[in-house]
Amino acid sequence: MTTILHIDASPRGDRSLSRRLSAAFVEDWKAKDPSAVVITRDIGRSPPPIITEEWIAAVFTPAETRTPAQQRELKLSDTLIDEVGRSNLIVIGAPMHNYGMPAALKSWFDKVIRIGKTFTFDLQRGDYPLEPIMSGKTLVILSARGEFGFGVGGVREHMNHLETHIVTCASYLGVEESHVVAIDYQEFGDERHEKSVREAYEAVPRLVDQLIGQVCPIAAE
Ligand SMILES: Cc1cc2nc3c(=O)[nH]c(=O)nc-3n(C[C@H](O)[C@H](O)[C@H](O)COP(=O)(O)O)c2cc1C
To answer: Which positions in this protein are listed as binding FMN (predicted)?
Structure first.
């Protein structure tokens, strides 16, 4: 069975292009695989608080000696990690903000990439001591950007810290395969933007068809 963790990171509501695109992806998936379970986490509207010294101290305190206050400190993180653990497909609607991920999404990653819960740390492994605990997940990023040229070979490829950062972080959540569909030119609002929107909405069902048998072979039968 497919369990989709559907995350939206735009602070914008109905006007958000990345929200509409991620909704289109999940709706198409549900239409083709009705038994799929969808966990929704709207971090654009309810951003996880940024981490504090108290939070870090609680993480590094052994679970059996954590105070009630430390347990409360980690409650949201525990819930968010549980959502990741239950999913095999992570769908993230993510606007580009200042050439990277929105702060809410960074805050979400800071809360879910946690020692002993989503990764282990062992210096016996030499220069690469971190290893993810989970595996086999697929990530789909549905993105929107005001400018353009962020793809491979594009004029702003070197300025694209959105997908690269998300994919790097997601590997510590067990993501082994990732895909991106993006809408460009939002700030120009011209025919290039319209074309980009059109192409993104054409790409979404194609990507669903491509992934549906991979993520959940039963759904494709
Ligand atoms: C705070 C902020 C920062 C932005 N930074 C960038 C940027 O660095 N590059 C870019 O191409 N667009 C940038 N944009 C434009 C957004 O990526 C664009 O409006 C996109 O449609 C936002 O996604 P949404 O429609 O899902 O909210 C920025 C927008 C905001 C509000």
So the answer is: 10, 16-18
